[in-house]
Amino acid sequence: MKAYEIPVSLPAFKMLKRDYGYTHFLRVDYLYIKKKGHRSNISESFLKAPGKNQLMITIICPYASPDRLYALARMIEHTFNQKFLLFVEAAVAHELDASEAIRKFMDKYDLAIEEFEWETAWKKWQRYRKREKELDLIPLW
Questions:
Q1: Domain containing 22: what range?
Q2: Which one of 20, 44, 91, 138 has the fewest beta carbons within 10 angstroms of its own beta carbon?
């Protein structure tokens, strides 16, 4: 096992702490990510230093290439985005206003406006809702 550091956004870091018990490191026993292509120039520059509103977290796993670490960081961000969208969708399905649902989500994860801007969250919700309407999916619940 080896320790690596990957950058994640502050909201995703708070999700890791609250939902998955992240304290000092995250242990990944087996990392299987299918290679889609060669993008090492993106992944290596992404892993060097955290960007704006990001911080480095420690991942302990068997050998992982920069591509796999990049995919893991993107997967953590995707998990946060899916939790956000599903939370708002469930709240709207239960007769709550979307703006109030976004505020409750921000309160749930203790997110400040500087970390997760309300306008960005609102636009993300609008794009998701538009995409779902275009797909015309029937909900299973």
A1: 2-135
A2: 138
